[in-house]
Amino acid sequence: MVDQVSEICGSMEGLTLRRRKYLDKFLTREGPFTDPDSFMPGEPVIESLSRTKVLVIGAGGLGCEILKNLALSGFKDIHVIDMDTIDVSNLNRQFLFRHADVGKYKAEVAAKFVEKRVKGVKITPYCGKIQDKDEEYYMQFALIVCGLDSIEARRWINAMLVGMVDESNPDSMKPMVDGGTEGFKGQARVILPSMTSCFECQLDMHAPRAAVPLCTLATIPRQPQHCIEWAHIIAWEEERKEITLDTDDPEHITWLYQKALKRAHEFNIPGVTYSMTQGVVKNIIPAIASTNAIIAAAVCNEAFKIATNTNPFLGFPGTNNYMMYTGDDSIYTYTFEHEKKPDCPVCSTDAVARPLTVDGNSTLQDFLDSLAERPEAQLKKPAIRTEAKSLYYQFPPGLEEQTRPNLAKKLSELVENGEEVAITDPAFPLQFKYKLIFK
Amino acid sequence: MADLPPPVQGPTAKEKKYDRQLRLWGATGQMALENAHILLVNSGPGVVGLETLKNLVLPGVGQFTIQDSAVVSEADLGVSFFVEEEDLGRFRAEATCNRLKELNPDVQGHFVAEPVESFLTQPDSLKPYTLILVAAPIRPDILSKLSAHADASLVPLFYFHSVGFYSHFSIHLPPAYPIVETHPDIETTSDLRLLKPWKELADFAADKTKGLDAMAAEDHGHVPYIALLLHYIEEWKQSRDGKPPSSYKDKTTFRDEVIAKAARTNNAEGGEENFDEAVAAVLKSLNPPEPNGAVKDIFKTKECLALSADSASFWVIAHAIGQFYTKHGVLPVPGSVPDMKARSADYIQLQNVYKSKARKDVEEVVESVRSLERSLNRSTPIEEKDIEAFCKNAAHIKLVRGRPFHVVQAGETIKWGDRAKSIAQTLTFPGSLIPLYIAFLAWDEFAATHDKDALGGAPKVAGEGDSEVDTDNEKVTGIALKTLNDLVKEASASIEENELSTIKEQTGEFAQELVRAGGAELHNISSLTGGLISQEIIKVITEQYIPVDNTCIFDGVKSKTEVLRV
């Protein structure tokens, strides 16, 4: 009996060994760039890699690739979070999904598929929001790999991971490896929370699109997009207020399209199409398999190097931590060190208020609106206070009502020249401090 | 009845599925993709080719064929996503073909499990394929054969390596590979002709700026900035012998002293948006509408000058546009106008001024094309929409001169030809990946001179056995350093001694890291490389965007790429 068991174990070992044929070249051999102090070739690194617990955030275009890549890089214990269900427009790149899966949870389908294909890998899905989970949950992982399309979610997890760092406990620092794509472009980066430049430090790399002024939409449209935005923001509100707009409902899109088309007709504006309507109201970003493959693999390559030290990884303090990729005109990458911002509202330990020149005659409402477009802030529901008083709060309703009259007041009526204000947003665990200077 | 919007034609099932990519390459690009048939000649662990095909099957390539004589092994299960346990012992060509086909029912997949040597001996074996991919390692005589086929039949050929943390691919394109739809940045595409306005544009500006100074605030703040610029350029010219602001100093003076000061500031906003736009546009829009050198060179190429009955339509249109340029000193007006602060009707009127001029220019080019067609006795007329698209993007067309890449032959010195000087020069740039390219050439030479067994079939790669790592290291490094010396010699480059020794050291390290792999692919590096190659294939097939010319290296230790022309 004992013999049989050991025989089975032996053949199992032989099996894994044969499967690891290629990987083991790197896990057992030193190279010209390996650091002898951190790289432990052979059993130690093989063992630690298989025990490394890694969290993947996102099971979409990047996430599908990331799960496949990690599973084929020797990671055995993978968790994945995604709140979305599968849509037919995902199928041109999210290769773990088939037509029959449309409507099911991405995290679940993806996990099952990769587990079946790559034997010996355990993938635990969670179908929900990252915000559902707390510090204790994130603490169990050695590494976080993000493949998200939303800036908000990345800001949230970044702030969470920075907040978790306890200097007396080195295990509390969870490396975050992040990728993003748009059409033929993308970026991959490694963040060592509190040690290197964090997502918030790098936020201005994702400049928000300038919004079209409301008066243009309402009175002087010139582009087909203006007519669509008008239908989306103004006409729907006026004519179908009682119905919540669902951008996935073809009837709703059709209504917006026809409204936009009619308005465009009135102003002689050519070019409104159904596809453009969908693109504008859903803020669709073009996405293809190849760019996702490139960025996801770049990200997983760094995750593998971090977990094994088989070669130096991006993100070691004082070295490059960011790769920018462009593939529409030949192929171009720019790999550089993005430096920590001393006044980062998330990772700076002694964040001082940034001086900000404002027009004292503009209203508080104008000022709050401008925060949505400031590259380093990008806050959609900001609350603002001075040391002495609350200027505006979105929640709770009572406070909102009480502070609402301030919105119409001029900044100069509310704060002194040079006074500090603190701005928060319920979506992020962070706080911006500005010193307002009147121009 | 006429006022009713047309009935909505919602997207088709296919448009829904491919929505996110159609926004990049459109219906014509998609059609080209669906007409393609790609051959993968696979070898080694073979992951790059499969990952490449994955990224082409998903967006709906027409057909693919995998040639691979290997049998699925345990090692494949550890590195490749397109094999399963139940495939063990089957032909890898068949197993991977089936797994890839599952990704998209619109795509047809085929496989060839016989060895490439015998496959190629069949007559017309390569005829069905519109593009060919070849994985290293491969015997040099086979690669030469494929390269000769690419030369003769003008079929694009890709050759690639993925060895450990490093990868490489080279593209052999036809000698003339022109692209019209290069998709330049929106920022760089507007060509407003502000220094050379035609009559209708000048009239528009004069009309919209009539009595500018006395205008009511609402009107003054809505004059389109193009009209403002044209108006103030006219004023400037009158006091300066008819010369527009042309030097950098002139332009900044024009911007800061004329435009900025003409804005009204006595309002609630403290300025005017249309004037802000005019200020921002001065430096980039007040340029003579001169096409760049590369575009003018296209008009002078032999293909463009010596047309024949079977010239590609690109050359006939290019010839006609070259004539247009000779006659007018400018390219056809592209016709697009950026968005700007303006009243709807004024903006639409301005748009029409540009559009009608663009249409007029297209008509002139069409006429030249038709006359060329007659004199060349061409049977099918070029479609007008192709001529129109060409005119619209004339300033951004691109010609890639495809050429064969290096095929390493045992014992033969690599020839760099007309690229020697430039490559040798780039070699000295800090962080250059040319030493890595040289290390790959050495890796190929090792494979070309070592066989897996006495039968002389499959090549043996460096570093496979643990006991051979050190000797293989010496061999590959030795070949790489010799290749490096030959390059320096051929280029007659004078590189400083200490610089050269640094380059040698880097070459040695790259060679060593390649040998460390012992022929292993890392899934991440192969997946990334498959992403790059599939992207380039899409560009080549759709004839959109600009492909790599002609070699790309990826360094997964430092996470960076370099493109070089060899």
From TrEMBL, chain A:
Gene3D superfamilies: NAD(P)-binding Rossmann-like Domain, Ubiquitin activating enzymes (Uba3). Chain: B, domain 2, Ubiquitin-like 2 activating enzyme e1b. Chain: B, domain 3. The keyword ATP-binding applies. GO terms for cellular component: cytoplasm; nucleus; protein-containing complex. It is an enzyme of class 6 (ligase). One of its GO terms (molecular function) is ATP binding. Its EC number is 6.2.1.64. Belongs to the ubiquitin-activating E1 family. UBA3 subfamily. Catalytic subunit of the dimeric E1 enzyme, which activates NEDD8. This is NEDD8-activating enzyme E1 catalytic subunit. The lineage of its organism: Eukaryota, Fungi, Dikarya, Ascomycota, Pezizomycotina.
UniProtKB/TrEMBL annotation, chain B:
It comes from the Eukaryota. Pathway: Protein modification; protein neddylation. Gene3D superfamilies: NAD(P)-binding Rossmann-like Domain (3.40.50.720). Residues 18-560 form the THIF-type NAD/FAD binding fold domain. Regulatory subunit of the dimeric UBA3-ULA1 E1 enzyme. Belongs to the ubiquitin-activating E1 family. ULA1 subfamily. This is NEDD8-activating enzyme E1 regulatory subunit. It comes from Lophiotrema nucula.
